[in-house]
Write a structure and sequence with these properties.
The protein has helices at about 1-30, 45-70, 80, 90-95, 100-120, 190-205, 225-230; strands at about 40-45, 120-125, 130-135, 140-145, 150-155, 165-170, 175-180, 180-185, 210. By secondary structure, the protein is an alpha+beta fold. Strands 4-3-2-1-8 form a five-stranded antiparallel beta sheet. The chain has a four-stranded mixed beta sheet with strand order 7-6-5-9, with no helix packed on it. α1 (about 1-30) packs antiparallel against α2 and α2 runs antiparallel to α5.
């Protein structure tokens, strides 16, 4: 019973650590913008995927270290805690163990690049400008609204028949910003922020490319108020 409780506590702490790391990662990224007077802070969904991957990798590595210590201390019960033959992650860690002096530095460099990419991969929309950050431009690249080529609005359909709304600002240097990614709106509702940006787009006479193909199928289960706001974004 004590053993089960101990593992349960470790599991809860691991989950709490991963979730804390993810939210801490997003908070750290949003804090990198010096000017807080923005309309919307946009962080692509890939950043969240990377942060989860890194946290998961750290948890698995810690698990490997804990299991190894138990084996060395003869406290490992092979009947109950045997590493499964299907545990491919653990098998991979066991495989690289003899080559750790080569593999570990490579993995550290790889994770550093991933972290640097995710921390610098975001955009900030201001009242009169746009700033897009990347691993190439860690201090940000400045744009004006005149640098916007067009705006694409639509709803994509996945193989699982899920519908995803997008509102993408296309810049003249062929880069783009999807405002419906992971974002920080300073406490405002995302659809209200999108309507605010959309009104600015219209006033500046920036072309809008609208795809209404899946509009009628989108929003099942959502409040009618949100659906109405989304429909307004499909008006030129």
């Amino acid at each position: 019973m004590k053993k089960v409780l101990a593992y349960l506590i470790k599991f809860i702490l691991a989950i709490a650590g991963v979730l804390g790391s993810i939210f801490g990662f997003l908070w750290l990224q949003s804090s990198l913008s010096n000017n807080k007077d923005y309309i919307i802070f946009v962080s692509p969904n890939i950043n969240l995927v990377i942060s989860i991957f890194i946290c998961f990798s750290i948890v698995m590595l810690l698990r490997r270290i804990i299991l190894k210590r138990k084996l060395l201390d003869d406290e490992f019960d092979s009947r109950n805690d045997e590493i499964s033959d299907n545990d491919y992650i653990m098998e991979f860690l066991n495989f690289i163990e003899p080559k750790k002096h080569i593999v570990y530095p490579i993995l550290i460099i790889f994770y550093c690049i991933l972290t640097s990419y995710a921390l610098t991969n975001y955009s900030v929309i201001y009242e009169n400008s746009i700033k897009k950050y990347s691993i190439i431009y860690p201090n940000g690249k400045d744009y004006t609204w005149n640098d916007v080529k067009d705006v694409k609005v639509g709803i994509t359909k996945s193989r699982k028949r899920q519908y995803d709304f997008y509102y993408t600002i296309e810049l003249k240097d062929n880069s783009s910003i999807n405002l419906n990614s992971s974002n920080e709106t300073r406490g405002k509702e995302i659809h209200d922020i999108l309507l605010e940006v959309d009104n600015k787009i219209k006033k500046k006479h920036i072309p809008k490319i609208i795809d209404k193909t899946n509009l009628n199928n989108y929003g099942t289960g959502l409040d009618e108020i949100y659906i109405e706001k989304i429909r307004k974004l499909f008006v030129e």
